[in-house]
Amino acid sequence: MTDDKKPAKSELAFGDEKIHWDQDMSYGDYLKLTDILNAQHPLTDEHDEMLFIIIHQASELWMKLCLHEISSATRDIKANDLSPAFKKLSRVARIQGQLKQSWEVLATMTPFDYEKFRPALGKSSGFQSFQYRGLEFSLGHKDEKFLELYKNAPENHKFLKTLLETPGLYDQALQLLARRGFDIPADRLDRDWRQDYAASTGVEEAWLRVYKDVEKYWELYELAEKLVDIEYHFQQWRFAHMKTVERIIGFKRGTGGSSGVHYLSKALSHSFFPELWSVRTRM
What we know:
- With about 280 residues, the protein is an all-alpha fold.
- It is built from 13 helices and two strands; from the N terminus they run ββααααααααααααα.
- The protein is about 60% helix and about 5% strand.
- Strands 1-2 form a two-stranded antiparallel sheet.
- The protein starts with 10 loop residues before the first strand and ends with a helix.
C-alpha cells in the first residue's frame, strides 16, 4: 500500500528556534536572490567597480518602489481617498532618504579608484535611467525630447510616454482642490499634460486659503505638506548626487555625454510643486 502523504518537514534546531530547511519555497526562492545576487558583472578586475554596480542597482530598486507608491497615491487622490495616499507619500519621502544615503556610500570611492574602470562604462550613464525620468514625469517635470533616449527600448518608451501624456501627482492634487470648491484656473485643470507644469498665481491663492485655515482644510493641508516633504527629500537626493559627482570627477562631462555637474546643478533649480513653496512667503 502506497503512502501518498508528504514526509514531515525536516528541522534544524538553533537553541529554542526550529528552522524548516526543505520547505516548498525558501527565503531565497521568494526573493529571487539567485537572480539578484548574480546580476553583478564587472567589466574590469578593479575592486571598486562592484561598489559602483551595486549602488546603482540598489538605487534602481528603490526608484521602482517610489514609482509604485506614487502611482498608487495618485490614483487614491483621484478617488478622493486621501488617508492611504498620505501613507504612500510618506513612504516615498523615506525612500528618498535611502537614495540620498547611497551617495554617501559611493563617495567613499576616490577619483583614482573611479578612473581605473570608468573607460569600461562606454557611453552608459545614469542620465539614461528610465525610472529616474519616470519619477520626474510622475511629479510633473516633463520634457518630451527625453523619449528619444528610449526609442530602442520599446517597453521603457511606452512606460514613459504613458506618464508623459497623463496627469501627474500634482495635477491630481489640483483637480482635488477644484472638487473641494477652490477656484483653480481652467488652464491648470485641462491642459496639455505633455508639458512641464508651470506656476500659477491662481493655484497659489488656493493653497494660501488652505494654509490660512488649516483646521477647516486639514486634509488638504496635510496633502500639501506630504508633497513638500517629497520635494524636500528629492532635492536633497539631487544635491547629494551632484556633490558626489563633483567629488569624484570634478566638472568633467558625464560618460553618457551630459554636462555632468552642470546638468545636475541646473536640476536643483526646478520645483515640482512651485506654489507650495512660494505660498510660504505670503503667510
